[in-house]
Amino acid sequence: MIEFKLPDVGEGMHEGEIIQWLIKEGDAVKQDQPIVEVQTDKVNAELTAPITGVVKNILFSAGDTVEVGTTIFTIQEANEMSLTEAVSGESDNSPEQCGEEKRTDRLPSQWQFEAGRALATPFVRQMARELKVDIQLVKGTGPAGRIIESDLQQFVEADPVFREHLNQGGNETILREPEPKKKAEQPKVAGTEPEERILLKGIRKKIAEHMVKSVSAIPHVTHVEELEMDALKELKDQLKAYSEDKEIKLTFLPFFVKAIVIALKEFQTLNASIDEKTNEIILKHYYHIGIATNTNEGLIVPVIKHADQKTIFQLADEIRQLATEAREGKLRLEQITGSTFTISNVGPIGGMHATPIINYPEAAILALHKMEPRTVVRDMEGVIRLMMNMSLSFDHRLIDGVTAVQFTNRVKELLENPIRLVVEMR
């Protein structure tokens, strides 16, 4: 009997939430077959069977939060040859040799796998629902017969006439839209106002825990500065045709990343963290920039690794790709860890300024706000300029107010004079 303990599938995670069990007690499973889906720190992970055998005891239910190292199920190792023969029908008395049709209901009950449960990741299952494909009909080519993205695409492209027929309602049992979840009816209590209670769990719970840790451990101070964006907009517009030739959507964000990296190299404490166990300041000479991204599941921070070594167009393409994968739930663990400084671009939503919370254990975070024409004074005359505010929250244990202002002034200088930004890129 083997006890399967919840592993650390993140960087120092302490617990995980069980999202769903993909098997039940008594099921026969093959090695590497997905067993349970677990919510870790901002990503979902499917844990697989360590051996071929029978699941004996499931010790936790969906929705339970479990500490790393805790046994979550037990599995009894099976005789490998017996299982293989039972499943494949290749024993001496196999149905083929007897001239009979192979039937899974002839297998011993303990070796009958749950019918209709295809092996696939949560993202692939979501993709199947969006394509209106019954995933049970798709043949998997991945490890252990797992269905991968290309399998779905090939299934859909194999017979477009059949797919069109299904889309028009030809066979709703094979292809159909997922039914919308019905909102639970709230009990009405005399003398009280109507309210709804939602369990704090999953990504939202992780975000809450992370924010509490950040504000409790880091003394936050926020400095706000304004930028004149006309010159940068003119440069971006000049590069529009070139970016379109490369099929890259160019936004202002890559220019901010470059300006920030240049400033971080000059003001190193903003690219640092504190090791509270050893009481040391860690100055990081690599520049991994986190981009806060809003998704249906909550705030995710994908990371651009070694941003100082990438061009404006490389940054633009990677930002777009990471944002897409974040919204589709496709990000891997290494894509959301290791950031040294974070940017939160709330400008498209609106707002003049804010006090962003630092992405622990980083030392600072910069929020970008909406861009709009404003009346400003230049040479003692009122003129209209395209203006934007930025808010820098910083760890006052590491960074003094003077340093924070000098940092934002440097970013401002580079962005308001983009030719200087281009010259200083390296």
Architecture overview:
This protein is α+β, with helices and mostly antiparallel strands and 426 residues long. The protein has helices at 80-88, 95-98, 122-131, 149-158, 160-167, 202-217, 230-238, 240-245, 253-266, 312-328, 401-416, 418-424, and strands spanning 2-5, 15-21, 28-29, 34-39, 44-48, 53-58, 65-67, 71-77, 220-228, 272-275, 280-283, 289-295, 298-300, 303-304, 341-345, 364-378, 381-395. Helix 9 (253-266) packs across helix 10 (312-328) and helix 9 (253-266) packs across helix 11 (401-416). The chain is globular and about 85 Å long. It starts with a strand and ends with a helix. The relative contact order is 0.10.
List keywords for this structure.
4-stranded antiparallel sheet; single chain; acetyltransferase activity; alpha+beta; Dihydrolipoamide acetyltransferase component of pyruvate dehydrogenase complex; E3-bd_dom_sf; 7-stranded mixed sheet; 426 residues; OB fold (Dihydrolipoamide Acetyltransferase, E2P); 12 helices; transferase; Dihydrolipoamide Transferase; lipoyl; Chloramphenicol Acetyltransferase
Overall body shape:
globular
Label the structural class.
Answer: alpha+beta
CATH class of the largest domain: Alpha Beta
CATH architecture of the largest domain: 2-Layer Sandwich
- What is the share of helical residues? 25-40%
Order of helices and strands: EEEEEEEEHHHHHHEHHHEEEEEHEEEHH
Q: How many helices does DSSP assign? A: 12
The overall number of domains is: 3
